[in-house]
Amino acid sequence: MNRYSGFYRSKIPLAGFCLLFGSVGCNLATLVHKTTVNEFHLWTDSYHLTKRMHTYAKKAWQEYKDLTPGLDQNPAFKHGFLDGFHSYLDAGGKCVPPATPPRKYWRYSSFTPEGAQQVRDYMEGYREGTLQAKDSNYREILLVPVLIVPDDTNAAMSSLVPNQLGDNFEDSKPVDPLPPILPNPKPTPKEKTDPMKPSNGPVISLKKEVGQ
Predict the structure, then answer these.
(1) pLDDT, tens digit, 9 for 90 and up, residues 3-38
(2) DSSP state, 36?
(3) Distance in angstroms (rounded) separating the CA atoms of residues 95 and 88
(4) With bands split at pLDDT 50, 70 and 90, how would you rate the model's confidence at 141?
(5) Rounded-to-integer distance, Cα 50 and Cα 54, Å
(6) Which of 143, 142, 131 is nearest to 55 (CA)?
(7) How far apart are the first and last CA of the chain?
(8) What is the pLDDT of residues 81-100, one digit of tens each?
């Protein structure tokens, strides 16, 4: 057996992979880079931002709890406060609670007077959390700044309209209105003719000559 046969046999799959990778062009390399590098960076950024927003929410809850004693005995209010604070930092919007509470409050044990009170406490805590988040101005540091160029198109058009109509645009006389549209004339009735009365046109003899 040739001692080089094992060496070449092990290099054949590697050569085939190199040929396949080179035949597809740069598209495969771009997809691999996007999946392994870009997506990982996006995930880590989202994770750290979410963690920071949770930290802001817990800090705001601690300050709010110190000013309002007795809230430690109401976990539903705390749950709603933290969710509302985090939701406003993440998405903004109006300071109103969601249409339905989380699924935690959908269980059979929640369909009691105590469960209904927990839902109301969650909604109230959510509303208070969004208001506190709005007053904290934390959301302003979590937004990407965007340069907005003022649009002066409307101002330019409004300044051109009086010049096109003349300098004395305000003192100009109103335009006379158009005359009213008259109805279509009625057709003239045709004169009735007597079929027995000869017409004034040439008379054509219809007599058939005998013998023809």
Answers:
(1) 545 544 555 555 555 555 555 555 766 776 667 777
(2) I
(3) 8
(4) confident
(5) 6
(6) 142
(7) 128
(8) 999 999 999 888 888 888 88
